[in-house]
Amino acid sequence: MSALTDAFTGMLFGKAETTRLPVRTSTGQAQAVYLPTAAPGLGDSGVIIGREVYSGKGYIYDPFQLYGQQLPAPHWLVLGESGNGKSALEKTYVLRQLRFRDRQVVVLDAQGEDGVGEWNLIAEALGITPIRLDPMAAIEQSIRLNPLDPAITATGQLALLRTIIEVAMGRGLNERSGFALKVAHAHVVETVTQETAGRQPILSDIVERLRHPRPESAHAMNVAPEDVRAWGLDVALVLDRLVDGDLRGMFDGPTTVGIDLDAPLTVFDLSHIDRNSIAMPILMAMVGVWLEHTWIRPDRKKRIFLVEEAWHIINSPFVAQLFQRLLKFGRRLGLSFVAVVHHLSDVVDGAAAKEAAAILKMASTRTVYAQKSDEARATGQVLGLPRWAVEIIPTLTPGMAVWDVNGNVQVVKHLITEAERPLVFTDRAMTEGSPRAPAELEEELPPLALDAGPVSFDKRYTR
């Protein structure tokens, strides 16, 4: 009967199609047949960022999960012009990382309006008081970070003092000035610790010793005390700005009691500091070294150090050298450094081009938001982006960015939850966004509870 049916069907409609046996193949071979296939993602462990534009898949990123497998270093560079979503990405990324209890974040908040930094709302939502560094605040109300804090090793203190002085002077210390600083620091650390139990050495002690060097320090080098005093005069004048000049109130006393570096989030509010003043790179150096010695510890916690306006670091040779060491040191102890920069040309064409190249090389993750065509080509050349990615950067809309994770390049659309939106987009304009999130960012991610423990957005997408 079957043969008769086939014969009749063949007579009416032509020869019946031959039945084909299934074929076993690999995805590598099959993609040549089924061309619309998506590039592989970064895995399903970490926090969700948004969606891959071309495949629609959830985009998951976590430098701690990827480190050692797909990432040689956990550090991250975020680039792009204002108004395209860098600020929103940083804030939601931090909020989502804090869902995991083994995370700690420090933010250097260099932007803000209405007298507070732009991270102020997030800090309030988490019950945290930002550390507001302000040289114009009343002396009794100012927050201080002491370069001579006993929590910092003697070697670290001396390195920090040298960096502060070199940044302020705009040049390196010569051997004679460096010697005068070294003997003054050694004498202060020894005598203050022994003679005044319980008091921290402070910068005014260093200034006093530079003005009045000990005779034995001079005799040890077979020079006159007057020579050592002359060698240290420029150093004393620079430090005097921090003690009794226009930069006073931030470094000229013991470290303020009550700064909690064990909190999940610590925000240093630098919004009261003139971004173009010498105080900004000095603050960057001070906070970086202070955190290196007081915050980064081998306790198996994963730490994120996010720096707004990071060109103040990368564009200063002396500060960049300190942060190079911090990045190398922190990589062994679970530190991810996130640098936010508007234009790469601000960095690679600056005074610290060599140091900048070294820091950029350590950033295995690069996220690039919309830039003008010329800037996009320059950025692509420096970062080694593929041609198609360079061509698409000028056409990106707010919330979309090219992500390059150690050569895995994707176009990603950042998504924001209803709970995050009022913390990310505020009426204060924030210099990076608008009072309301763009419609394309308000999608269907579930609400984010700020006080929750480790919770998955979706079991397919987060650990």
TrEMBL record:
InterPro entries named among the record's database cross-references: P-loop_NTPase, T4SS_component
SUPFAM superfamilies hit by this protein: P-loop containing nucleoside triphosphate hydrolases
Annotated signal peptide: none
Family matches, as Gene3D superfamilies: 1.10.8.730, P-loop containing nucleotide triphosphate hydrolases
Protein name from the UniProt record: ATP/GTP-binding protein
Organism field: Streptomyces lonarensis
